[in-house]
Design goal:
Blueprint lengths: L16 H17 L4 H12 L2 H19 L5 E2 L18 H27 L2 E2 L5 E5 L5 E4 L4 E7 L2 E14 L8 E5 L2 E5 L3 E6 L3 E8 L2 E5 L4 E5 L3 E6 L5 E4 L12 E8 H8 L6 E5 L7 E7 L3 H12 L2 E6 L2 E5 L2
């Protein structure tokens, strides 16, 4: 619920279109988080009445949200190359970039291959780039892996264990009190009996959100425990204190429908979320990666268009070096 100190979108009649789009996205997220806040609704109506452009951009933003919300998850959703919307600000590589391109390509490929070898050796299922991969587990549970995610599953007399080797997934767990279901994610673990939840991890930490049932989150692997009920979430950095929050259950794992919902997150987080959906490499640099904040909704199934919208709304420089390599600079 919103509080008296909750951030409100800034109103300004003399704004460029990027700022209008940014404010429309902010209103969408704020109103969705707390639709009963009369004060927030009044401020929104005032902003809406301030300019015909505000109404036009708001209608486009809301239409996109409704379109993405109506999309149904499928067993495996892959983005066809022909559906990619090309960026409008492409440039050809010249001068020093001609030298940089092969070096960057080799470096990227080498790093990716080296990092992937341990995952490939352990994984039973891997979701490809741009794919949401559905896995029917032998105990009757179901896992949906986000693009780039990998997992391995085993079960014995003591219980069921799913090791998330990379990325994140959404899990609908079959009820079986005699055989607890555990998800291992990096240095953290989630224990459930029968529930539906999202879990994921990266080099910074792990995150868990619960749609149905009750889960116990242990980090690092048993030293600290938290219990989460539906609509609750926790983010656990490997170095630092956990942060707990609330989330609408129907908005958990929105990526299954190709949606990225962002509320006051750094640009770096948005780029990290886009990378598994993009059939190439996104190299990010600049001091604003962690200081510039983003609120909005993006279509993950069209990562080129999502990157273009992010760049336009937040004045981010994107250089298209090759069809599969982009340099993103955030000042």
């Amino acid at each position: 619920m919103a509080t008296g100190n909750a951030a409100r979108p800034v109103m300004n009649d003399e704004v460029d279109m990027g700022a209008v789009e940014r404010m429309a996205s902010t209103w969408l997220v704020r109103l969705d988080d707390d639709p009963e806040d009369a004060g927030l609704r009044a401020e929104f109506e005032q902003w809406l009445d301030a300019s015909p452009e505000h109404r036009r951009v708001w209608a486009e933003t809301r239409d996109l949200d409704l379109l993405l919300e109506a999309a149904r998850p499928v067993d495996a959703v892959a983005l066809p190359a022909g559906n990619v919307v090309p960026l409008k600000f492409r440039r050809k590589a010249r001068g020093k970039w001609r030298v940089f391109v092969p070096l960057a390509a080799a470096a990227c490929l080498g790093l990716v291959l080296a990092a992937d070898i341990p995952v490939w050796m352990q994984a039973q299922d891997i979701a490809r780039t741009g794919e949401v991969h559905k896995v029917a587990l032998q105990d009757g549970s179901t896992a949906w892996l986000a693009p780039g995610a990998a997992m391995a599953f085993s079960m014995d007399a003591e219980g069921r264990r799913l090791k998330l080797l990379r990325g994140k997934g959404y899990f609908d767990v079959a009820h079986d009190p005699a055989h607890p279901f555990r998800v291992e994610a990096g240095d953290g673990e989630v224990k459930v009996l029968g529930t539906a939840f999202e879990a994921g991890f990266n080099e910074q930490g792990m995150a868990v959100s619960v749609r149905r049932g009750l889960v116990e989150v242990s980090y690092p692997k048993g030293r600290v425990r938290d219990r989460l009920r539906p609509g609750r979430s926790i983010a656990v950095p490997w170095a630092g204190s956990p942060s707990r929050g609330q989330v609408r259950p129907d908005r958990i794992a929105a990526w299954m429908n190709g949606r990225l919902l962002v509320n006051d997150r750094p640009v770096r987080d948005v780029l990290e979320a886009l990378r598994p959906w993009y059939g190439g490499y996104i190299v990010a640099r600049g001091p604003g990666l962690d200081t510039r904040r983003v609120t909005g909704i993006y279509d993950l199934r069209h990562p080129d268009a999502a990157l273009e919208a992010l760049a336009r709304a937040h004045t981010i420089a994107v250089r298209d070096i090759t069809p599969w390599l982009r340099i993103v600079t955030v000042e």
